[in-house]
Amino acid sequence: MRKASLNMPSSMVATAQWNRFIERCLQTRVFPENFAILSKALQKKVPLSAQKISKILIENQLQRSEEVDPLVIFYVGKLLSLGILDGHDVLISKNQRHMAKLKVSNEVHRSEFVDSQLVEFETAVLNMLFQDYTNGRRPRSGEELRRTMEALIDRVSAMASVNAQELMNPDVFRQIDQQELYLRETFGILFVAMLENSEVAQLLDSSLSHRKYSDLVVHGASGAIPSQT
After folding, report:
1. Which of 42, 85, 86, 92 could disulfide-link 79, Cβ–Cβ 3.0 to 4.6 Å?
2. Is 214 inside any structural domain?
């Protein structure tokens, strides 16, 4: 086994080690504070991309039980606070999990798209991001803000698409349950918190100002070129 691992690509070795680490932490119920210390050391020794770590956490959750394990949520929170994960990493990995679930079916059906565990997990992550944006702990960069917004918009668009298809096909229409309704409300309050965040406002203003300046330069330069007619 040792010789085989030496021949494995470094990314595969890192993924395997992170998967074993998270599995053992969940099995032995390692406290979040200790998990944070161990995670920081492991990421330094065996670095792995944030989205792969997010995927491992999600898959471990789905394999464990029908209900969300509170420790998984606590572990995600610790990794977010350490900067090992950003909000968009978790959201993108979760969105990919939803889309993978859709592809295995020929029909789009709410029971296949809205998985109870994923909805509860997603709601908890959105609530953590809401707290971070409300308290000014995020965004940590313009890139994080952009990718988080993109992930949120992709998810909302996907939900709207499924709802629209269900309305067109009464045979598969189902009443929205309380858990999904709460998820939608959480999207709303997160968007509001982001828009009211002073750092977000500054980044958006800077981005718009830069775009206007770029347009002015382009139009000014094109206007300065003499007409060939």
Report:
1. 85
2. no
Q: Is residue 221 part of a domain?
A: no
Residue 161 within any structural domain of the chain = yes
Given a contact cutoff of 8 angstroms between Cβ atoms, the answer to whether 173 and 166 are in contact is yes
10-residue averages of pLDDT along the chain (229 residues):
51 94 96 98 95 93 80 96 92 79 49 65 93 94 91 87 70 66 91 93 78 51 43
Domain that holds residue 116: 2-209
